[in-house]
Amino acid sequence: MKKMFLAALAALVLMSSAACAASMGDFTIQDLDGEVHTQKLLSKAKLTMFNVWGTFCPPCLREMPDLGELAAELEPEGVQIVGLVCDWTDRKGNPSEAQIAKAKKIVAKTGASYLHLLLNDDIQQYFGDITAVPQTYFVSRSGEIVGAVTGAQSRKAWIAMIRHVLAKVE
Fold first, then answer.
1. Across 26-143, where does the E strand assignment appear?
2. pLDDT of the residue at 17
3. pLDDT reported for residue 7
4. Domains of the chain
C-alpha cells in the first residue's frame, strides 16, 4: 500500500500560484440536462475533484466506474467529484444533442452517477490549456486550485491522492 501511495503522490502536482489560476472565481456552467450551476457548487464540499473527460477517451471511460463508487464513498468526508465533458459540441462549436446524449449514455453505463458538466470557457479559464484527457483538478471550498493530475488512475491511487489533498485543505 505504501508503494501505491507514493506512486499516486508522485503523479499529483500540487499547485502553486504560478500554475494555472491560483483560484477560481465566478463561473456559470450547464450540466448534461441543461441545469445551470455556478461557483456556489464549490461550497458543497471541502474538496471538489473536477475530472475532465471525453466520450472518445478509453482511459476516461475505464476509470469512471471507480470514480462513481468513490463519489458515493467519499461524500461523507466532504469530497465531491464532478465530471467535465470536453467533447459536447459539433465541429463549429455549437452544442451537439447527439454528443450530449452519448455522454449521458456513458454516464449511465459506467455508473458514474456524480454531477457531469459541459466544459466551457467560463470554467476552463481557471485550469489553463487542457491538452490531454483525463485531466483532473482539485479545488478547495474557497476556490483555490490545490492540485492536478493528468491521466487515468486506479481506484487505490485516487483514494491516496484525494485523502492527501483533503488533509491539506482541512
1. 28-30, 36-38, 47-53, 79-85, 115-118, 135-140
2. 36
3. 56
4. 2-169 (3.40.30.10)
157 within 8 A of 8, measured Cβ to Cβ: yes
Give me the pLDDT at residue 16, please: 41
In terms of DSSP bridges, do strands 36-38 and 47-53 run parallel, antiparallel, or are they unpaired?
A: unpaired
Is the torsion defined by CA of 37, 44, 152, 127 positive or negative?
positive
Residues 6+ apart with CB under 8 A from 62: 152
- For CA atoms 57, 65, 146, 156, the dihedral sign is negative
112 vs 64: CA distance, rounded Å: 6
Query: Which residue type does 140 have?
Result: S
Beta-carbon contacts of residue 37 (< 8 Å; ≥ 6 apart)? 28, 29, 30, 31, 115, 117
Global pTM reads 0.90
